[in-house]
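Now read these lines:
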Amino acid sequence: MLLYLTQSLAKVYPTFTLFNYLTLRAILAALTALVISFVVGPWMIRTLATRQIGQRVRDDGPKSHLPKAGTPTMGGALILVAIGASTLLWGDLSNRLVWIVLAVTLLHERVHRIQQVGMVLCGTAVALVAVSGRG
């Protein structure tokens, strides 16, 4: 979206043609994702903690993992929000490859979310097998 804005501004102010370079937009997208994760991250962690969506630790595992019990899971959702928003802001939305990569990322997140929900509900490390009923 910002690419189209800068292309329109480049007709009036030639300095904005700088935003046509993919490397500059990639750097700005990475910085935007970082800022989004810093802003949204604390809120998301608090929300997951209040909903008690936490990691369960198996009793037969290493004793050093026991302090991790209750740690909020689904941190990948924060990464997905940051990547998705910065891609929509800085990406070339007329390029179908951008949409394909974004769709594959979302589909991968769906599978991961199913696994995470299964881990929280079933309390097992092999939650995807437990949810599918093949265990």
Observations:
- The radius of gyration is 20 Å.
